[in-house]
Amino acid sequence: MDETVKQIMDNSIPLEETPEEIIDLAGYQITRAELFAHSREPSITFWISRMKFNMACLRRFPGVRYVQILIDPDEKRMIIRPCTQDTPDCLRWATGGGEKEIKNRDMQCKVFAEKVYDLMEWKPEYRYKILGKPATYEGEFLFLFKLNDFELFVNSRSKGSYLPENWRDYFGMPADRHDEEYRVNLAEGFITTDKI
Question: Whole-model pTM?
Answer without folding.
Answer: 0.64
